[in-house]
Amino acid sequence: MMKKRTPDLFDFLKMVPERIKKAENAPSDEIRHVSTYKANALAAALHPAVQHLTVSAVTPLSPDVKLYRLTPDKNAGTEKLAPFSAGEYISVTVKKDGCTYSRPYSIASSPLEAEYYYEIAVKRVKGGAVSPYIHDNWAVGTSVTASGPCGDFTYEPLRDAKTVVCAAGGVGITPFRSLARAVSEGSESFDLILLYCARKEEDILFKNEFDAMSRIKVVYVLSDEEKPGYEHGFAGAELIKKYAPAGEYSLFVCGPLAMYRFVGAATEKLGLRRKFVRLEAAGEKNDPKSEPDYTPADKESYTVKVIQNGTEKTVECGADETILRALERGGVSAPSRCRSGECGFCHCRLVSGKCYIPGSSDGRREADRIYGYIHPCATFPRSDLTVEVPDNPIGD
Amino acid sequence: MRFDYDVIVVGAGNAGLTAASRTAGAGLSTVLLEKNNLPGGFAASFVRGRFEFEASLHELCDVGTKEEPRSVRRLFSDLGADVDFINEKKLFRVIVKGEDGYDVTLLSGEKDFRRSFLSVCPDDEKSVDRLLRLLDETGRAIEYNDRKNGKPNKLYMVLKYPDFIRSASHSIDEMLIYLGFSDKARLLLETYWLYIGVPADEANSMHYLEMLRGYINGGAGIPPHRSYELSLSLADTILKKGGEIRYNTEVTEFIYKDGRAIGVKTEGDEYYAKEIISNIIPNNVLNMSGKHTREKDRKLLNARKLGMTFFCVFLGLDCGREELGIKDYTVFIAKNSSPRRQYEDEAGIYVVNCLNAAVPCATPGGTCSLVITIPVFDPDILSGVTPENYKKFKSDIAKKYISDFEAVSGIDVFSHIEEISVSTPVTNARYFGSPEGTAYGYEMSRWDNLMSRILNRENELDIEGLSFCGGHGPNGPGFGVTYISGVEAADAVIKRIKGVK
Question: Domain limits at A214?
Fold first, then answer.
C-alpha cells in the first residue's frame, strides 16, 4: 500500500505563484495558427465547405445524358480535390436568373482519379430547373461551385457482406460506376454483381467500360425490350436470387423512386436483413400523393414567409412541392445537399404554420420534431408558413 | 451589413447557449453567432438510417430528481428551458483486464454507493466513510464560497473545511491515500479520472471530489432525446426572450479599438456590441485578433497543453440489448488498473455506452446502439494519416475496439452492425474548429488545474469587452460545468453593462 501522508494544509498558497511562473517562462510567440494542426489540416482537406471547379471535358453518353469532367480551379482557391469514397456525391450549385439552385450528383469517376478530377453524369430532365441549364450552358472552361464529397452510400467492410449485389436504374448507375472502378482497380475489395436496369439497350451508359472491367460481374436488364444476352423486366426478387450468391450478400440500390418501392418489396420476399440493404438517397419527392401517409392539402399553394439573416421575403409554394424548391425559385439562397430529407444540411426553423412530412423521408432528429425544426427538402406546406432559413455557406 | 447589439456571443456550444439565454433574459439585445447549422457544439446528435446517435454526452452529474432538483435541473428551469432527465442509478461498471483485473459495478446515492463499494472492498469501510464525510464537507465549503460570491475568508475556510482545503492543492492519489484507502479501492474510485482528462496522480482532487459528489449525491441524468434536445431547449429560451441566433455564420475576425474588443466580422457582415462573449477557445480568438494580442495572454496560452479529445465508434445493431446480453449503460474497460498507465498506453482505457440500458426506446424495437469512446491524449496518433488513407484509418480503429470489446464481454457485435460511423479528432476539428480537435480545451495538468485557474481567474484573459466561457475556461470541460460557465460569463457582462453592484 502507498505510504500515508497528511497533505500540507497551506500548499494551496503556492498554486497561483506557480501558475504565474509557468506562464512567465513560456515563449511570447504568436499563437500557432489553428489551421496548421494536423487534425485541422486533415479536416480542411477532407471536408472543404466549397470546392471551386472547372469543366474540363464534356462527353455525351446518350441523347439525354452528358458526362462532365471537373478539375480544381486553382485561381478560385481550390488547389486539390477532396478525396472521396466510391458511392459519395457532390452538391453542385447553379445560379440562374438571380436564383441559386443545388443538385446532388454522385461522383461517377474512381476514387483514385480524384487526384486529377471528378466526373458526374447529368440527365436532362424535361422542364427541370437545373439539368437543362447545365446541358445548355456548361462547356469546357465553365466555372462550377460544389460542396465537398458527402453521403453514406459507400462500402463498409465492418457492416456489409463480402458480396454486394448492386441494383441500378437508369442514370442511378453513376455511383456504381465509381464503386465498380474501385473494385476493378483494387482500392475496394468486395465482390460486385451489378444488375443494371435500363429501358432499352441504347439507354445503357458506360457499357463498353463495364464489359471490359475485371473482378466484377454485370447483368443488363431491359424493361422495354427483349434481346438475347439481356435479362428482361426489372430487378425483382427472382432476378436478384438468380445472380446473388448462396450465402450472405448486401444489396445496394440506386435508381428512380419507383425502383426503391419495387426493390423494397423484393427484399421482403427475399428475407434480407435490413443491415444488408442500402438505398442511396432517393432525391426530392415530386409526387407525394403516392406516399402511404399522404395528407391532402386544402389549397393548391401557400405563402411562405422567409426570414434570413435579418431580412424578410415571401415566396409561393405549391401544396405538393417541397419548401426547398419554392425557396430556390423565389430567389432565396438556401443551404441544401442530399435533397432527400437525410443529411440535414437544409435544417431550418419552422416559426409558424403546418406541414406535411412524409414518414419515408423524415430524417430529422427527435428533438427537431419537439422544437419545430424541418428539413425543407422533404417538407410540404399545409398552411401559410413562416420559416427561418440560415445563410447558405456555399454563398450567393 | 452592419449590425449593432448589446451582446454578441460567439459559438453556440453549451456555454454560448446559456450565456445568450442569460443576457437576452436580462433584456440585453443579444445575437448568438454559430458557424454550424445546429446549436450545441458537442451537445449534438446525428441520424444514420433508423438510428439517432448521441454525439458526446455520457451523463450529466448533479441532476437530481423532479422532486428534489439539483444544480443541472435548477439551471435549466432558471433559464426557462423545459426538459426532463432520466435518472441513471448505476455509477459505472469497470472491467480491468489482466491477472489483477476486476469487474465491479458501483451505484449512485450515498447508501447504495457505500454498499456496492464495500461489497468489493470490505476492508475500506473507515476510509469510505471518511470520503463520504469529505464529500459532505466539500458541499458545505462550496455553499459557503458561493454565499461569499467567490470571495471567502480564507482563514475561516482553513479552520472550518481543512480537508477540503487540502484537496484544493493535492492530487486525487494524494487525497485518497491520505484517507487510508487500499490500493485496490483507490484505483477503483479513480476510474472517473478520465472525465477530468489527466491521471489521478496529477488531477486536482477538489475537482474530482466535486464531480464525485455530483454523481453520488446529486445523481446522474440523461435527456431522453440525446443532448441535442438540451441544445434546442436552450436555443428556444433565447428566441423566446427576444435574442437572435444566426447559424452558418462563422466569425473570421475580432475588431478592436484602443485595446477594447468592439465587434466581429463574418463573411460579408460586421457585428458591433458593448460586450462580446466567446465560447470558442482563446487560441482561435487570438488567431483572429491580428496585432491586438497581448504578451501575457500569448505566454499563458503557449504554456498550456491542449486537452484530450476522442475517437468514437457509433454502432446501430439489428438486435435488442437484452438479446445481446448487454446489461449496463456505462462500462469502462481498462488494460491496467493504474490511471497513469491508462493515460500513457495506447488503448489504455475506453468507455462503452449502450443508451438503451438507460433510455429503452432510444432506438427502434429489436435494435440497440453502442457507442465506444476512446480518449486521445497524444495528437501524434494522427501521424501517418493522409486524406487518402483516412477512411481506412477510421475503419481500423473501429475494428480494433469492437474486437476488444467482444473479447472482454463475450457479446457478438460484428454480425449485428446495421449502421456504423466513426468520429475522430479530425471530425471535431471539422465541426468545432478547435486546435487538434480538442474536446476538453486545455489539459487540467498539475499547474493548470481547476483550482489554480479559479484562484487566478480575475487576472487572466480579461481583455476589455471580451470574455470567455466554455470547457477551456476556469471550470474546465464537461456538460454541467460548461452550462454554468456560460451563466457566469453572462452575469459578469450584465453587471458591467447595467452598472449594477
Answer: 163-279
